[in-house]
TrEMBL record:
BP terms from Gene Ontology: methylation
GO molecular function terms listed in the Swiss-Prot or TrEMBL record: methyltransferase activity
Alphabetical list of PANTHER family matching this protein: TRANS-ACONITATE 2-METHYLTRANSFERASE (PTHR43861:SF1), TRANS-ACONITATE 2-METHYLTRANSFERASE-RELATED (PTHR43861)
Record keywords: Methyltransferase, Transferase
Keyword Methyltransferase: yes
Matches recorded under CDD domains: AdoMet_MTases
Domain Methyltransferase residue range list: 25-115
InterPro entries (alphabetical): Methyltransf_25, SAM-dependent_MTases_sf
Designated name of the protein: Methyltransferase domain-containing protein
Length: 210
């Protein structure tokens, strides 16, 4: 598999999972790699994606090694009925830009008290403010791709059936500036941090009592 920007940030996202997390929702789960990592930590995960092919691939993967389970559902988040105040952790990895940003309001309502929403997001680059970051990312990205290719050649691991299925992608239409504005309005107290590989990390923690 080539160097994958979303998978690269899995450890960062896992660090946002609150202590004692029991129930999680992964929105736009693709073939389920992150959902399975959550389940490996003993979490019960609902993983949603509207794309039939990726959900079928996700369901066909071997179960996560930990004590948690993943329930994959073919659902569009904008149409999904989410239980109120239910999830300790909600993640969106490279999927929020597929839907209107204010979908975060719906996700917030599904957070249990003290729950965390973590968005690994994509943004539309603006010239010239984003240019220095992109220029820095290009050579680092090239090195990471070469390192990934070399590792694969050495280990010689064949692709699993899930890895041959490509999740749908979309071009982001919202700039980082607009995302920061919307986040401060819809998710007061949230943080939005720029990450190197054309991504940002938004973290919102719901109050422990509401
Ligand atoms: C770039 S892929 C990322 C997949 C996965 N999160 C990952 O990190 O590999 C974006 C995913 O968002 C999903 N998606 C698109 N529209 C969606 C919607 N309305 N509700 C939920 N997921 C959606 C796509 O089907 C796709 O699997």
């Amino acid at each position: 598999m080539p160097f994958n920007h979303n998978d690269h940030y899995h450890p960062l996202l896992l660090r946002q999972v609150p202590t004692g997390c029991r129930r999680a929702l992964d929105v736009g789960c693709g073939t389920g790699r992150f959902a399975r990592r959550l389940a490996a930590r003993g979490v019960e995960v609902d993983a949603l994606d509207p794309a039939r092919e990726v959900i079928e691939a996700a369901r066909s993967a071997p179960p996560a090694p930990g004590s948690g389970t993943v329930r994959f559902e073919q659902v569009d988040i904008t149409r999904a009925e989410l239980p109120a105040r239910h999830y300790d952790f909600i993640s969106c990895l490279a999927s929020l830009h597929h839907v209107p940003f204010d979908t975060v309001t719906k996700l917030r309502a599904a957070l249990a008290p003290g729950g965390v929403l973590a968005v690994l997001g994509c943004y539309r680059e603006e010239w010239p403010m984003d240019a220095p970051f992109s220029l820095l990312a290009v050579p680092v990205n090239a090195v990471m791709r070469l390192a990934t290719a070399a590792t694969e050649r050495v280990t010689g691991q064949p692709k699993s059936p899930q890895e041959t299925v490509v999740a749908p992608v979309a071009r982001p239409s919202t700039t980082l500036r607009e995302i920061r504005d919307s986040a401060s309005r819809l998710l007061p107290g949230s943080t939005v941090r720029r990450l190197l590989f054309w991504r940002y990390l938004l973290v919102f923690r719901e109050a422990a009592t509401r």
